[in-house]
Amino acid sequence: MGIDFKRTETETSKSMLTDPQKETERQPKMGVVSSELARSMLRSNVASNAEVQDDARSVNCLTQISCDDAKYSPYRSINGSCNNLNHPNWGTIFSPQPRYQPAQYDDGVNSPRTTGIDGSTFPSPRLISNKLFRAPGDCTETDHARTLMVMAWGQFTDHDISSTLPTLGTREQITDITSLIDGGSVYGNTYEQMEKLWDKNTDHLFENADGGAFDLASLNLQRGRDHGLPPYNSWRQWCGLPVGTSFSDLPDISKEKKAVFADLYRNVDDIDVFAGGVSEIPLDGAAVGPLFSCIIGNQFRDLKDGDRYW
Q1: pTM across the whole model
Q2: Spatial contact of 66 and 163, defined as CB atoms under 8 Å apart
Q3: Which of 24, 256, 261, 307 is the most buried (most CB within 10 A)?
Q4: How far apart are CA 241 and CA 233, in angstroms?
Q5: Residue 196 is part of which domain span?
Q6: Does the residue 142 lie in any domain?
């Protein structure tokens, strides 16, 4: 079986716009090999999906770390190690990211979600973006309650804790930065990155890669499918929120958006989580609706409770 390392997905292509470290380059290749092996095992009935998951966990070994010196340090380590003294690898660079829900891939291993409940193909992310997120008359709505700093700080925080690579077996995501809010997007998460900043190589500090333009909504939709995120209703159920059994009774979504969803999707259980979450009517005093409030709340609770330097 031949493996073509030149084959890329949307998320991998986007990561190529940055300057990857050697380990960052190595990890996707390991992930491709492992995913191909896992698919082969499932096709030949050598192992069940659960057994493949168990094998992946045993193979995906992390470096053994000693925390003898770090336990008394008043400062974080640059790579996130030894924040949790009982589990020194938790939250470190190149460690697996845990999921709130199991992944849903088309082949159970690696292939992005492309088909709905009835087997029909999902609408393209670009089509969803154009129909669902275009403001009337192509005019953007002005938010009089929040400045652009809200977006900038949200983006900064996101890039400080999430940057994903494939891992072994049934595809999960490995983070190539720490899972802590530690300013890593400024200083880096390795000594090599940090030294580049110390060396004051400012000639290229603000230089962008020569890449094309992205439709952010389309990218987010495709990213969710690439990572096997369960659909919108599944997340509503996980959060203990009521779910819609038809497009007309979707809770927390306007009548106009319900009609758009009915036009785009064949089944209410096919709705992408990003499309559904962004379309919800915001809670009082909030910028997001019930679902994203639940997910974001859980995420920041875990960031706080799981960080001894918080």
Answers
A1: 0.70
A2: no
A3: 261
A4: 9
A5: 10-114+163-213
A6: no
